[in-house]
Design goal:
With 239 residues, the protein is α/β, with parallel strands linked by helices. Helices cover 36% and strands 26% of the residues. The protein has helices at 41-48, 70-76, 93-103, 108-121, 137-149, 167-179, 191-197, 215-218, 222-227, 234-237; strands at residues 2-12, 15-25, 30-34, 55-60, 63-64, 77-80, 155-159, 183-187, 200-205, 208-214. It has a six-stranded mixed sheet, with helices on both faces. A four-stranded antiparallel sheet has the order 2-1-4-5, covered by helices on one side. β4 and β5 (63-64) form a beta hairpin. It is globular, with a radius of gyration of 18 Å. It starts with a strand and ends with a helix.
């Protein structure tokens, strides 16, 4: 589903933030992208979407991430932003959910039908007519996920989906993410959430891959995590 071959990304010439990354993500995988601040996680997400230029080669479902392919690629990739306020910009949840599908050519009625199905699947039907500015943090995060799902992406890119949530809403978001069938790439400092939601972890450090393997193995390796300025998930540190 995703294939990176010797990918580098720079904000300034000669100073790469992502350095010669190569890895493959299969359809249906749930991958946690972890690392300390500045490791390159968010930069990599933006490169996958074609929001930042990259050298090397990025393939999404066999298509190269280049200007001519970006409309088709972005239909396959759904991006859930860290700050839901940057994503939910229409008056109501339903308005946000139909915006993308209607831009893809669906009628309002067809888009509303898709939105209703997604909300029902997530047990969020009561949010449809709610005004975005009146939603709680947890409700807005769930609505943001629903908005992306209404566009029927093949791959979900999620940037810190549980940040700033209280424990109750955090658990709802984790359960929702775990139930989704799409290929998922999740960046987070919440390693307990990564342990719950992901079967594989890619650890970035200074723009390079420091480790890539089963989540249960990497997230239990205290020496590895501490060497890259991270700590064991809280649920494991108490054992």
């Amino acid at each position: 589903m995703l294939d990176l071959q010797n990918v580098s990304v720079s904000y300034e010439k000669g100073k790469p933030v992502i350095k010669d990354l190569s890895f493959h993500i299969n359809k249906g995988e749930s991958v946690g992208l972890i690392g300390a601040n500045g490791a390159g996680k968010s930069t990599l997400m933006k490169a996958l979407l074609g929001l930042l230029p990259a050298t090397g080669r990025i393939l999404v479902d066999g298509m190269a991430v280049e200007k001519a392919n970006l409309p088709a690629i972005r239909r396959r990739l759904g991006y859930v932003l860290q700050d839901s306020d940057d994503q939910m910009f229409m008056p109501t949840v339903l308005d946000d959910m139909v915006f993308g599908p209607m831009n893809y050519g669906l009628s309002r009625a067809e888009a509303e039908e898709k939105a209703a199905a997604v909300l029902a699947r997530l047990s969020l039907s009561d949010l449809a007519g709610r005004q975005n500015h009146r939603l709680s943090g947890g409700e807005k995060r769930m609505a943001a996920i629903a908005t992306v799902l209404a566009m029927e992406p093949d791959v979900l890119l999620m940037d810190e989906p549980t940040s700033n949530l209280d424990p109750f809403n955090r658990r709802i978001v984790i359960n929702t993410i775990g139930s989704l069938p799409q290929t998922r790439i999740i960046t987070s400092h919440d390693l307990d959430m990564i342990l719950d939601c992901c079967t594989r972890v890619i650890l970035l450090s200074d723009g390079r891959i420091a480790a890539d393997g089963p989540a249960g193995v990497i997230l239990r390796d205290k020496a590895l995590l501490e060497a890259h300025r991270m700590e064991l998930p809280l649920s494991l540190s108490r054992l």
